[in-house]
Request: fold
Amino acid sequence: MIHLSQLLLDPSCPQVQAELRDPYQMHRTLSKGFGDGPAFAAARCLFRVDEAGDTAGLRLLVQSLTEPDWQRLTARPGYLLGAPQVRQFEPAFAPGQRLAFRLRANPTVKRDGKRLALYREEEHLAWLRRKAEASGFVVSSAAARLPQKLGFRTTRGFDTRLFGVTFDGRLLVNEPIKAVAALVAGIGSAKAFGFGLLSVARLS
Reply:
């Protein structure tokens, strides 16, 4: 069972602005809804911030294996624009099923033991096709939005630079068991920084 939460954030809130600049701080804020340490690790939490579209807020999507308690969220007044919404679902796919998808990812490759960012659109799409194939999907169509660069210092003092790309498009399910596993685990690196959450919707 997967729990999917939707939190509507106020973009004018200083805490929201700080966490958008340093998404690991958002990761730490969200951890309070599950319990720190082993409880948060067991939740296998993935998150992504999207524009809400129909409101002035930002939509924070949080996927987890355990049910969150958002009353424990440590946030300043004005952080949320409304009460969080949580629903449950059991992921299941069929061979040949068509899906619309969204994925915000940190496309990278490993060379000589180092993780290197990919910068060109054709590299991003090639990365997506490789990851999809390994995850039991085939990319039918995809578009990559303009990449976003993030640079910040972690609480341990490490300078971190990430390159975020949002993909939208359509997938074809090839191997259902792998596809479910990828949905649960997320795709790509830097999951603690708001990357890797794969959102899918059935197509008629």
Observations:
- The chain has a mean pLDDT of 91.
- The radius of gyration is 17 Å.
- The chain has two domains: 2-89, 98-202.
- Residues 121-134 form the longest helix (14 residues).
